[in-house]
Each structure stands twice: as C-alpha cells, then as structure tokens.
Design goal:
Chain A: Belongs to the binding-protein-dependent transport system permease family. HisMQ subfamily. The complex is a heterodimer. Chain A is built from ten helices and no strands. By secondary structure, chain A is mostly helical. The radius of gyration of chain A is 21 Å and the shape is globular. Chain B is mostly helical. In chain B, helix 8 packs antiparallel against helix 10 and helix 9 runs antiparallel to helix 10. Classes of the chains: A mainly alpha, B mainly alpha. At the A-B interface, helix 4, helix 7, helix 8 and helix 9 of A face helix 3, helix 4, helix 8, helix 9 and helix 10 of B.
Chain lengths: ~250, ~240
C-alpha cells in the first residue's frame, strides 16, 4: 500500500504539481496555490471597502453590502460557483476559462467573509482611536489611512492567514466546473490508474493537510506574538486588543 | 426559451417532484450527518475531558485532520477510495442501498464532528472550575456533576458556534452532489439540463438554500433565547 503510493508519486508528481503544462494549461498544485493567492490578493482590498461601507453611517452604502454579505453566507459556495459558471460568460459575452469563473466566485465569496474579519478588527480598536485622530485634525479618510487600518490590519494578520487556508480548501470545489487544480489532477491520475483510488485520494488528502496545517500553525504562532506585542506596546490588558476570533468557513 | 418564467419549472409536475425529492434527500443527509457528528463529538469530548491523558493526542490528530483537509477531498476519499476497499458483500449491499447518500452522511458527519467537539470543548472550558468543586462539595459524583451541572452550562455556552456550524453543515451537504447523491443541488443541475431554464432553476435552488439556512439560524436563535433569556437580551 505504501509502495503503491510511492509509485504513484514517482510516476505522476509532475502532473500533480503543474498539470499538463507546458502541453496544456497550468494545473495541479501550482494552479491551486495561484488561484488561492490571486483570490485573496483581489478580495483583500475589496473587503476593506466592504468593511468601511458596513461601518459607514450612510444607509445607501451600508445596506447593499450587508445584504451581499448575508446572501453570500447563506448560500452554499457550490451554488455560487454554478451561478458564476452561467452568469460570467453571459455578462462578458466571451468564452471564459473555468479558472476565471472560479476566481470571480472566490473573490466575491472571500470578500464577504474577509470584510467581516476586517470589520471585527476595526470595531475591536474601539471608537477612541477615531475620535483622537479626528481631534488631531485628520479627515475621515486620513484617520482610516494612517491610524485605524494599519492597526486593525496588523491585528488581523492571523485571521487573514486562516482565511487563506479556507480559500485553499475552497478551491477544491472548482472540480465541479473542471478547474485544472490539484483535485482535478488527482482525479485524472485516478482515471488513468483505475485500480488504486484509495491510494490516490489519500495522497491528495496528505498534500492538502501538509499545506493547510503548516499555514494554520504559523497563523497560531503569529497570533500569540501579535497579542503579546500589542499588549506590551499599549500597556493595556491583552484582551482589549485581541482580535475577536472569527468563525472561518469550514469547507 | 423566452422570458423569465418560474411557472415553467414549478408548474411542471415532473420538475416539482424532482425538486421535492432533492429537498428530501438534502434533509436526510443533513439530519444523518448532524446526528452522527453530534454523537461522535460528545464521544471525542468525553475522551478529552477524561482524566486519562493518552486519548488527547488522538483527538487532537482527529480534529486537525478534519479541519485541514478540504471536505470535498474527505468525501472523495470515502466514496471513491474506502468504498472500493470494502469486502465484496458489504460493497454490493451498500451499492443497492443508496451508497452515495450513506457515504455523504459518513464523510460529512465525521468531518463535522471535529468542529462540533471543538465548539463543545471551548463551551465546557468556559464553565469555571468552581462549578465542579461546588457540585462535588454538594455530594455529586463526577458523572452526575458533569451531567447536571457542567454540561448544561457548557452546551449553553457553546450554542452560538454550534448554530453557525450547523448552518455550515447544511450548506456543505451540497458537496454530496460531487459523489453523486441525488440531493437539492443535484436536482437543480438535472432540471437545468432538462429545461434549459438556467436562471429560473438556479434562482429557485438558491432561494431554497437561503430559506432553510435562515430557518436553521432562527431555530438556533430561539434555542439560545430559551437556554438563557437574560444573556440573549443583553447580546
């Protein structure tokens, strides 16, 4: 059994790593990581805007974003993927690769979740920071830019890292619309071998575990460090500045 | 195919029956995996709370595996992997008894147990140690103190994350479509293939998921209120 798994890794490591590239589209683990990194990179700025909109006093900004966040959290990711699969080509009028469809879905989905993280970070700072910076002559934008966001985002680094872990796990659902990621590559390997599905999918599980566990481990260490550092820096009980733990989506 | 027309789907008895069957299967999978997860979570919690330390690393490994491997991959490992390793007789029996749904229940339930047990553990941990000491001083044995003093408070503390994760489990039941279970998402895709009314059927499917998620959330909110009216009023 172990021998079978070693043999599979030996024969198919390139396919699992980069898919059919350069003879086909980039795939495998590389694609999984690129897709996750891109969607977090794109979702991050959007989520800051969403969080500010949700904290704004203007109902016209607050309500649509709140509705979007609630909608995104109430519907399975799979349904959202199917929506994009049908809507994105319709709206752009072009033949869109499944990678782009998946990226669009993940950006919308993670923006909604990350905005909750950022919002929690801003709320956890307390109103005093904003009051003080306004009193010092900062405009709202200036206070956000120089006082609130740097602190809030620094506190949120561990939560952002765990959102990244959820994104890596979410990319597996691209399997449904044939995104050539790691899961897709593994099922290709399984289709070629036919006789060793358990071994193939066990390898798949181990690879995901190794990546996500490592990231989770660093997120936890970073969290302890940040809590300690901020507690020392501000000379207040750590609990006051500890970012409130968010319930990360669990796919 | 012209215009937006929900009745093209809801008015068609065949499609309506498919939708109803999908909803039914979704709820069977949800109820099955929820019960399995809760039973297992209580077992994992008992191991964690027991004075014997040797079970702890096992439970930690269990939780770590299920939290760091995507649920979809866990389902695939169960259905495509472990199913094929089963002895012939068992496999044939399962295949003729809706194996997809059974493995969806097993996969989702085992995965969810990890989340439920962590929720319960932090709920129980937030009950102060004085409660146990007081209960023991009043003459309760360990088991009876757990049963009547610690657990009721612990479960109440754990209610909010448990509700969140119950909603997640409901949404994750849609993953069962990947291993071929005929639940709601499956019905939606089938009807789309037959009717070509993509927009309408996705809208119906989405509204159904949203509706049931909200129902589960409000049941949860009601339970939290019942469990602790004072705290809910403050929150």
């Amino acid at each position: 059994m172990i021998h079978d798994m070693i043999a599979i890794v030996r024969d198919y490591w390139l396919l699992l790593l980069i898919g059919q590239y350069p003879n086909g589209p980039l795939g495998g683990l590389a694609n999984t990581l690129i897709l996750s990194a891109l969607s977090i990179a794109l979702a991050f700025p959007i989520s800051i805007l969403f969080a500010m909109a949700r904290l704004s006093k203007a109902p016209l900004l607050r309500w649509p974003v709140t509705a979007l966040v609630y909608f995104t959290r109430g519907v399975p990711l799979l349904m959202l993927i199917l929506w994009s699969y049908f809507l994105v080509p319709l709206l752009t009028g072009a033949d869109v690769p499944s990678f782009v469809t998946m990226l669009t879905t993940l950006v919308v989905y993670q923006s909604a979740f990350l905005s909750e993280v950022v919002r929690a970070g801003i709320v956890a700072l307390g109103p005093g920071q904003m009051d003080a910076s306004r009193a010092l002559g900062h405009s709202y934008v200036g206070a956000m830019r120089y006082i609130i966001l740097p602190q809030a985002l620094y506190n949120m680094i561990p939560s952002i890292l765990s959102t990244f872990v959820s994104t890596i796990k979410d990319t597996t659902l691209g399997y449904v619309i044939n995104v050539p990621d790691l899961t897709f590559a593994a099922s290709q390997v399984n289709n070629q071998l036919l006789t060793q599905p358990f071994q193939v999918f066990l390898i798949l599980a181990i690879v995901y575990f190794a990546i996500c566990w490592t990231l989770t481990y660093f997120a936890n260490r970073l969290e302890r460090r940040i809590t300690r550092r901020r507690a020392g820096l501000l000379n207040v009980p750590a609990a006051v500045v500890t970012p409130s733990k968010i319930v990360s989506e669990q796919l | 195919m012209s215009g937006f027309d929900l009745s093209a789907i809801l008015g068609n008895p065949e499609y309506a029956a498919m939708l109803l069957h999908g909803i039914e299967m979704t709820f069977i999978i949800y109820a099955g995996s929820w019960s399995l997860a809760m039973a297992l979570a209580l077992l994992l919690l008992a191991v964690r709370l027991s004075p014997f330390r040797f079970g702890d690393p096992l439970v930690a490994a269990y939780v770590s595996y299920h939290r760091n491997v995507p649920t979809l991959v866990q389902l695939m490992l169960w259905y495509f992997g472990i199913f094929t390793l089963m002895p012939n007789g068992v496999a044939t029996w399962l295949a003729s008894h809706n194996a997809e749904a059974i493995f969806a229940v097993i996969g989702l339930g085992l995965c969810q147990a990890a989340y439920f047990s962590e929720d319960l553990r932090s709920g129980v941990r937030s009950v102060g140690p004085g409660q146990m000491e007081a209960a023991r001083a009043l003459g309760h044995g360990y088991v009876s103190a757990m049963r009547f003093v610690i657990m009721p408070q612990g479960v109440r503390n754990a209610l909010p994350p448990l509700i969140n994760h119950s909603v997640s489990l409901f949404k994750n039941s849609s993953l069962a479509v990947v291993i071929g279970a005929s639940e709601l998402t499956h019905a939606v895709k089938e009807i789309e293939n037959l009717s070509f009314r993509t927009f309408e059927i996705y809208l119906i499917g989405t509204v159904l998921y949203l509706f049931f998620s909200l129902v589960i959330m409000s049941i949860g909110a009601y339970l939290s209120m019942r469990a602790d009216p004072a705290r809910s009023a403050r929150a």
